[in-house]
Amino acid sequence: LILFCCAFSIHANTLSSTESLTISRNLTIVSPGKIFELGFFKPSTRPRWYLGIWYKKIPERTYVWVANRDTPLSNSVGTLKISDGNLVILDHSNIRIWSTNTKGDVRSPIVAELLDTGNLVIRYFNNNSQEFLWQSFDFPTDTLLPEMKLGWDRKTGLNRFLRSYKSSNDPTSGSFSYKLETGVYSEFFMLAKNSPVYRTGPWNGIQFIGMPEMRKSDYVIYNFTENNEEVSFTFLMTSQNTYSRLKLSDKGEFERFTWIPTSSQWSLSWSSPKDQCDVYDLCGPYSYCDINTSPICHCIQGFEPKFPEWKLIDVAGGCVRRTPLNCGKDRFLPLKQMKLPDTKTVIVDRKIGMK
After folding, report:
1. Cα 50 to chain center, whole Å?
2. DSSP labels for 123-145?
């Protein structure tokens, strides 16, 4: 019985160059606090196997990262091991189907380690610092965990973004992505096959202006960093016993889930886009959207529909000026409860304070 247990479990949170994980033996690696687990899994009845990370303590199997999402194993023969300074997945013919592609010193022994944050890292064997040769947090799948960053590393040029599943039980790269677009004011865009379908609006120092649900709470802190080294967004949990995650669904919804132990289920805290007015460029130029009216698209003051027959089903033309612009008489008018326009090409005087 003791030998049987040991054959099906690795109690340590590291994988050395002399060890390996295989599908047939059902071996896994568990983080020190038993929060996350790494191993091979098959999400559906189809013969496709993946290496992934999921919550260990949560009975409902919830995957937060997948290594070989676009190169699954076609049968139940596969191995994870360290080879030539890299973490690799080999198929039944010992062909490498996935690799971390690091360029460390192959003469120095390395280990793969699963942290309690859910981060799978590669480091030198004799170095326990936060200097990693590679980390899964740099290559998100569809989920953002606490301490994981989305955005640009300006030193390396790495862009961390989310890509949805193809379907709920198929981790293959799907149609939707969630990326940080940098400019004078950075904001997130949701893309469907590289075409924008939603944007958050710029960061105003507290939240992304188009996401009022992203307000402070008792258990989560949102953080946006912009300096010479990075432009990134992350969030932190104030309680280690609370599990929460952000996810880009296969239907194009950016969602926050929090685990409720008393009911043993994930609770949806909020989701965006919230309604039809959140759709990118729905009403066209010089217009605004009001979900409480019919039709929902309207021209701003001083403008009229570009096409007189403008209807809800044909709003791409937007609006045009009623009279030519007169810089001596025309003035700006305030519009309340609006998401600021796309800020990729704006000019900002940064000497002006937030107030």
Report:
1. 19
2. EETT--SS--SEEGGGS--SEE-
**Overall size of the chain counted in residues:** 355
Residue range 205-237, pLDDT digits in tens: 788 888 877 776 778 889 999 999 999 999 999
CATH number assigned to the domain with residue range 141-274, chosen from the 4 options 1.20.950, 2.20.200, 2.90.10, 1.10.1330: 2.90.10
Residue 175 near residue 251 (C-beta atoms within 8 A): no
Pairing, β 265-272 against β 170-181: unpaired
Q: Which residue has the tokens 């998100």?
A: 140
Extended strands (E) in 67-200: 79-83, 86-90, 96-99, 110-114, 120-124, 134-135, 143-144, 150-153, 158-160, 162-167, 170-181, 187-192, 195-199
Determine the Cα–Cα distance for residues 212 and 310; give it in Å rounded to an integer. Answer: 31
Cis ω for the linkage preceding 43 (within 30 of 0)? no
Q: Which strands, in side-by-side order, build the sheet including 134-135?
A: 14-15, 110-114, 120-124, 134-135
CATH number for the segment(s) 10-139: 2.90.10.10
Q: For residue 354, how many other CB atoms are within 10 A of its CB?
A: 6
Can you read off the two tokens belonging to residue 332?
A: 């700006």
Token pair 């189809």 is found at 46
Classify 3 as helix, strand or coil: helix
Return the closest-CA partner of residue 153 out of 231, 233, 223.
231
> How is residue 20 written in tokens?
């390996």
Of 263, 269, 267, 259, residue with least CA distance to 57: 259
Pairwise CA distance, residues 69 & 49, whole Å: 9
Every domain range in the chain assigned CATH 2.90.10.10: 10-139
Tokens of 328: 């001596």
Residues 264-310 have pLDDT tens digits of 999 999 999 999 999 998 888 888 899 998 888 888 999 988 887 65
Pull the structure tokens for residue 299. Answer: 């021209």
- pTM of the complete model: 0.89
Dihedral, CA of residue 158, residue 162, residue 167 and residue 172, to nearest 10: 10
